[in-house]
Structure formats: C-alpha cells, structure tokens
Protein: Coenzyme A biosynthesis bifunctional protein CoaBC
Organism: Arthrobacter stackebrandtii
Amino acid sequence: MPNLNIVLGVGGGIAAYKAALLLRLFTEAGHQVTVIPTDASTNFVGVATWEALSGRPATNNVFDAVDQVNHVRIGHEADLIVVAPATADLLAKAAGGHANDLLTTTLLMARGPVLFAPAMHTEMWAHAATAANVATLRSRGVHVLDPAVGRLTGVDSGPGRLPEPEEIFAAAMALVAPGPAQDSPQHDGAEAGTAPEASGPLSGLLAGKHVLITAGGTREPLDPVRYLGNKSSGKQGVALAEAALAAGADVTLVHAPLEVPAPAGARLQPIETALELRSATLAAAASADVVIMAAAVADFRPANISTGKIKKRDDVADPVITLVRNPDILAEIVAHRAAQNQQQLIVGFAAETGDDEADARTYAQAKLRRKGCDLLVVNEVGPGETGSERVFGRDSNQVEIIALDGAGPVLAGGSKREVADAVVRVIAGRLGAP
C-alpha cells in the first residue's frame, strides 16, 4: 500500500488518549498524519503530544496558516479521514454539515473515505438523536463503526467504549486497500471487483424476498455447566439481518447466543447446539428465497453429555472426551435445494486460516466447490499484524465474496454492517434486482 496522507480528528472524550496509539499505528505504517484535535479534546491530550507524535502542526483553528487555506486544502489532500474518538457532538455536527472549526470544515471538504469511531456513554449512543445522525452519515457513504461494549468512565459498562486502536486501524486500512483488480490474484481467469454500488441505498433491493440467516456460535454441552464453543460474537450475522431488513426482505434469524441485540423486525429463533441449528434451518429454508449461513457451527460435539457436573478430583483420572462429527448443514441445504428443484440462492461463510500447504484463499475455493453453495463469503481469521484478533468479536471485517460459477470475486471491508450491505448488494444482483 502506498504511503497515505491521513487526517486524524480527535474528539473531546476521555478516550482521546487511545487516539495517540492509533496515530502511532498510522505513522509506523509509513503514513503522513495531520492531527486536528477539537478544542475540548485538548483538555485530555495536549497539542504538544500530537505534534511530537506526528511531526506536524496540530490545530483546530481555521485562522492558523491562513495563507495555506487549510480549511479547504487539508480535506482536499487527504486520502483518508479518521475521527477517533467521535463524540455525540461531533457526529451531530458532521450530520448537520456544521463548519465552525478546522475539523468540521475539513470533513465538508473531504473527497476520500471518512471513518468515525464513536465513543460516548451508553445512553448517548442509544439516544434517538445519535441513532438518526449515524443513519444520516451512513446514508451518505460515511463509515461509522459501532462502539465496543465494555467498561466506560467510572463504574458503568455497556456499548459506547472506543474500539481498540488496532481495530480502528484495520477498518481504516480496509477502506483504502488497493483494488483487487490491481493487487489480488485472479480466480480461474475471472476479474475481481469491489462491491457494486458500494454506497447506494439498500431500500427495495430484496423486497418480497424471504431471507433466512444463521448467526452466532453454537454451544455443545459437556455437562450441565460446561460446553464446547467458539469465538463468534454473532455481530456479522446480526449485521446481515439488519441489512436484509433495510433492503425490504422478510427475515428469519436462527441464532446461537449473541453478544449484540438481535434486530427488531426479524423473526427470531434462538438455538444453542449444532443439531438444533440444523433442525431450525432445514425447516425455515423450505420457504426461503435466500439462505445465508453465517453461524459459526461446531464441527464436533461430545459423544456423551454428563448428567452431572464433571468433578475435578485428585482420586479420579482426568476425563477423556470423545467427539463425534456434527452434520454439514450447508451441504444439506444445497442437497435439499437440488432434490426439490428449488429456486434458491445459498450463501456460505468461511473463516479460514492458511498453513504450510496452502493459503486461506485456496482452502476457501476448495470449500466452495465441496459445499456447492452459490456464494462463499471468506474472511481470514487469527492474529492480525498487530497481534489482535482479526475477525471474531470485532466490529470491523474484511471479506472476499467468491462465486461457484467463477464470477469475479468481490472485496468488501469496513464495519460489519458495511460488509453486510455489500453482501446484500451482491445477492440482490444475483437475484436480478436493479
């Protein structure tokens, strides 16, 4: 990736100190960063810190360096603008098109991608005004991450925590990653592309369609207390359900335990185990026009479930747990469609890792052929470049959508909702939506 000209806007919240870590990630990656701290933010982190870490002047005053016309120039020259933390006040100003300081004028002049990483108290994030402002920004093609869930200022905890700097960095880099047509190896001679109409509205794209989505990570009980599980939070599946609802679909969400609320407007069917997921999915798929298998399904389950809690005792040998294979639900859905001669679009998900024998993409292509679904949404999991988890539990994602018919792969990145929107647009294109 070439060196970028990045603007880092810093809002007036306690999480401003984390923006210093984000700045370091940008500069260590070789990018030039101009920091624009709001006046309120300097109560938390001073201008001297930003200038020392960036090696450039840091100001929010439109009357500094007037001869350079900064309120116009900086936004025009920026390859990327990231605002972290984005307070409720900053989101409101950006949605309203305010231009009363250097940061807001720069946002109005932006020609490249803009990413907001919100941080505020839970009630502020949940307030109808903030929700409306976020929806307005997203409708304009601005990228807004969902805040993390965790400890806030004081003793409170909930949604509103600034995502970790590594997560913001990954989401930002996904927005400016070189296009796959330039950098990505091609599949079977097909051309790669980006998600069609990446910032266009979803309204009506899936009107009249029944979309079945699975989400979350299944839990396979060992005893009444313990279970085998995985790291899936269900965030991507929930985002897919929200995107499908926004596109006008009738949505059924079959979900394992989730770390985020299920969307209003979907028919919900909670499950826990892979066998429960199989039963619910096969039943709902009978009437579905689209099936999206985003759940992280356990490949194995314990052969025997203890009726009592397994005790750890010095006079008893450690237990040996025998596992048996769970059914391949995605393959069953594909086989059922063929048997019923059903007109149905089936989308699988693959969380892949590479090894000494092949990379993640090669394994994903093999999985697509083996499963026989129409589309496979692939993300590479495991530790990222900064050592943090790439996908599980995060609010951002970067995927490649590959097709069984050999059509060019589509890359999508950003928040999980933005990835979900891209998947919905690809599905709508397959169904012949305009």
Q: What stands out?
A: The CA atoms of residues 335 and 372 lie 9 Å apart.
